[in-house]
Amino acid sequence: MHAQTKHIGQSFMARVKPEDVVVHTPLAKADAILVLGNRKKGSAVILARRAAELYRDGLSKCIIVSGGVINEEGRKEAHHIRMCLRAQGIPAQAITVENRSTNTKENIVLSKKTASHVKGFPKRPAIIVIGQRFASKRILMTMAAQWPEATTMLAPVCMTGKPLHKWHEHPWAMHAVFREVEKLPEYRAKGDVAHIDIGRHNRALNIYRARRLHPRPVR
Predict the structure, then answer these.
(1) Contacts (Cβ under 8 Å, ≥6 apart) of 174
(2) Which of 43, 44, 50, 71 is the most buried (most CB within 10 A)?
C-alpha cells in the first residue's frame, strides 16, 4: 500500500489536482436529501450526521438513503445509515430506504424509482446529494445522466478528517482521487455520466436559490 502510494505520489501528483474530481455547489431548500451509501468503516455515521444537519437546518424534510452493499461493519449501507439517522433524532417517517443498489449509477436510478412512489414527490425535484467528497464530480455527472429532470445540489462529506489541501497526506484519499481520475473516461464511454459545465450549473443554482429565498408574490 505504501509503495503504491509513493509511486502515485511521484507519477501522479504533478498533474492531478483535487479539483479534477471535487466540485462544490450552492445549497437551497430541496424536495429530498439523497444519501449515497459507502462501504468504508465509519462512513454511515459521517453521512448520517451531514444529512441530519441539513434536515435540522430546514433544507428538506425528506431523506432518501441508498445502498445495498454490505459495508465494512457488516451492515447493508442503507440500513446502517437509516439506523444512524434515527440515532440522530430524525423521525422514521422522514426516511425512505432504497436498499438494492451496488454502485453510484444504481444509487441514483433506483432512488429515482423509489422517490416516484413517495406521495406528492415532484417529477422535476430539487435534490441535495450527499456522498464522499472525492466522488463529488462523478456524482453530479451521474445525476446529469440518470436523473436529468432533477435540480442537483451537492453536500459532500470528508471521510479522512483532513482539509482538502492536505488530501495527498492520506493514502486512502490519494487512492480515491486516483480511482476517480482513472475511471471517469470509462464511465463516460458507458453513458453512466454526462458532461456538465460546473460554472453554468452553479449559476443556475444561484438563480434557483434566490427564487426560493425571495419567491414572487402570487397575484
Answers:
(1) 5, 8, 9, 12, 167, 168
(2) 44
Contacts of 112-117 with C-beta under 8 Å, sequence gap 24+, read 112/146, 112/147, 112/150, 114/64, 114/66, 115/32, 115/64
3-state secondary structure 133-167: HHHHHHHHHHHHHHCCCCEEEECCECCCCCCHHHH
Tell me, yes or no, if the pTM score tops 0.85: yes
> Which residues, listed in sequence order, are joined to residue 153 by a DSSP beta bridge?
128
Q: Which amino acid is at 131?
A: G
To the question of domain 2-210 being in CATH 3.40.50.620, the answer is yes
Retrieve residue 81's grid coordinates: 445509515
Q: Which residues pair with 129 in a beta bridge?
A: 34, 154
If you search the block for the grid coordinates 460546473, which residue do you land on? 198
Grid-cell match 445522466, residue found: 145
CA distance 199 to 201: 5
